[in-house]
Amino acid sequence: MAELEVQHAANRGAVARRLTAELRPYRGTLLVALVFVLVVAMTQAAGPYLVSRAIDRDIGNRDVEGLLRTMLMLFVVYSTGAVAGWAQTRRVGMTGQRVLSTLRNRLFEQLQALPLSYFDKRPIGDLMSRLLSDVDTLNQFFSQGMTQLLGAMLGLVGVLVAMLALNVRLALACFTIIPVMLLTTWFFAARARKAYRKTRQTVGNVTASLQEQIVGVRQAQAFNRTDVNIQRFRSQNAANRDANMSAVGVTSAFSPAMDMLSTLATALVIGYGGYQVLQGQLSVGLLAAFLIYVQQFFRPVQMAASVYTLMQSALAGAERIYSILDETREPSDAPDAAELKRAQGHITFENVSFAYDAEHPVLREMSFDIQPGQTVALVGRTGAGKTTVANLIPRFYDATGGVVRVDGLDIKRVTRTSLRRQMAMVIQEPFLFSGSIADNIAYGRPGASREEIEQAARAVHAHEFIAALPKGYDSVLGESGATLSQGQRQLLAFARAVIADPRVLILDEATANIDTRTEALIQRALSTLLAGRTSVVIAHRLSTIRNADLILVIDAGRITERGTHDELMARNGLYAELYQKQFREPAPPAAAPVMRAASGMRPEKV
């Protein structure tokens, strides 16, 4: 993962330029802010000069009125600088927040557009860390660091000009410190950049571990793995702690180094400037002004020390953010892709092959034909490729060989939106969103009326348990519907699929975790719901697919058997072996009337 980040965001300079490019839409606002920054810089340069004037001219000549006028001017100058500083901080801060809001939107849109294969290889916790923690580091930099750094750098230019204007020789003596200051900054910058990249990586690991262990706490307790998980988390947390301590060690040494250089510059001013005063080449007031300028000269650098941590952390976070934004999105629809109208549900696989990676093919030249309204079951050992077949139909993945067709059309030649609009999928572990039960059911068709929601729930026999809840359909679910039983969550997933009114229904182990009574209710409902619809059913519980119109037996990515239950049992092949392992004695003829469309269509020859 670190290699990907280095590949997509090779160096800090490139990342900094990309961050700068994010500010281009706000050039006007930033230009106004720059004017305020210049005002602040001019007031900082003018202040010490007025101090020297008060000492040399007003106090030296015992001019009380002149001193009052100078003090008034000094008050006006510093007040103007304070107001201008507030204005530029506000404008830059607001711009930073707009940039971050846009960046978050782009990140979320990118995550929604990435192919499923991207998420297969990355912990969700790490992605959450990038979306939240890494963006937050940019938030701190834009809202605090950038404003201070911009004002400090321009203020430094004003101080340099003022010092040269007052006394060139003394100014040049002070400037001899600059090369040492630049070398010191470069020395610490290289080490801090590496250290903060490490902190962003380790915090991503910690977040990923937290997310995984919290979600899997039930399994951890069931398998007595809590102590092992605690030790593993402590190790990851210690790695994050060590990375942060290393980063803090680098940046904490930077500020004292700048303090030493500031003290050296002050000593130069006092020594050489004092000599000039004794020689009559410099006034006491100008020497006092120079001492103030020296403090102002190093103040931006000292401020950079405090901003430095934010800047390095922000750049390291930006590298991780841009590594997501640079990922290749799910391939766009073909330029001539057509809208798939109301589908009949005719699905064809023509010599389809697929591999998640080139060295490990999952499907091998698979061909079959599903007629509209048929119920087809996919059967096979774990890892045979059943779920992969189901995922190719709605183009969650694209076949690496052959063609998948719906109603005779290559699915790569129709838009994904119109293709997926025709389909609904119910999986073994249904995902429910935070919100009400009604909202979760209506997720299958936004804008559905309450009557339609209730009809969908009644169709899958979910209405009874929903109505028994204190708030009925308005009951708010916790994360993933944890307050409901597994069977109740699955019933809601079925209701969500029903209300979408799909032409093709894909059931991937959808009844595996449901008790026998709930399963019987669903089977009776499905016999009506599947009427006129094409359905693809994956099931390990073979009793549930006995009456399917067609059963495809998949082994090692190939179809080895096909036919009805009775035909396959008579063939005494893999299907019969799997069935007999589940049922040591013959199944009764009155098995549940499962997974068969009411149309009663028989399978075509395939």
Keywords:
ABC transporter transmembrane region fold; 4-stranded antiparallel β-sheet; single chain; disordered N terminus; Rossmann fold; 3 domains; alpha/beta; 606 residues; 6-stranded mixed β-sheet; elongated
Any idea of the CATH topology of the largest domain? ABC transporter transmembrane region fold
CATH-level-4 superfamily name of the largest domain: ABC transporter type 1, transmembrane domain
Largest sheet: 6 strands, mixed
Mean pLDDT: 79
Low-confidence stretches: 1-10, 585-606
Gross morphology is elongated
Measured as a percent range, the helix fraction is: 55-70%
Overall number of structural domains: 3
CATH class of the largest domain: Mainly Alpha
**Count of DSSP-assigned helices:** 20
What is the annotated CATH architecture of the largest domain?
Answer: Up-down Bundle
Beta-strand portion reads 5-15%
Structural class, please?
alpha/beta
- Our measurement of the CA-to-CA distance between the termini, rounded to an integer number of angstroms, reads 44 Å
- What Rg do the Cα atoms give? 35 Å
Number of strands: 12
Strand order of the largest sheet: 6-9-10-3-11-12
